[in-house]
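Our consortium's second objective concerns turning raw sequence data into structural hypotheses that experimental partners can test. To show how far this objective has progressed, the report includes one record in full. It was chosen at random from the queue rather than selected for favorable results. The single chain below, 124 residues long, was entered without modification.
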Amino acid sequence: MSQRIAKAQELTREVLGESIQRLKDPRVGFTTVTAVRMTPDLQQARVFVSVLGTAEDKEQTMAGLASAAPHLRTELGQQVRLRYTPELIFDLDRGADTAKRIDELLRKIHAEEAQEAAAEGVEE
């Protein structure tokens, strides 16, 4: 990836992170822009967001972001100097959910191992 694309992605992430916090749409909950991936021609930006809350909260937030995309694109164009302002495509970043699930599974495995060790100690 070129340095130009990397810089555009980082600036876009910062600007959108601040702009999303200022949205007045009640559907948009606590949202963090975790990453932005732009096409090489900078025409499209896939914006990955992490959303706190239930599955319904996440769904509503994603709908709110999709609705606000034209407004956010305008703000981005005003703050970041690019030849073309990229089309914004929002995706839910499931990294936090995956990490939480892995932690739960590891805790369960450790608890089962502890129970097995305790049962073996009782049998002797």
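The partners drew two points from this record. The radius of gyration is 21 Å. The domain at 3-93 is CATH 3.30.300.20 (GMP Synthetase; Chain A, domain 3). Both points have been shared with the crystallography group to help prioritize constructs.
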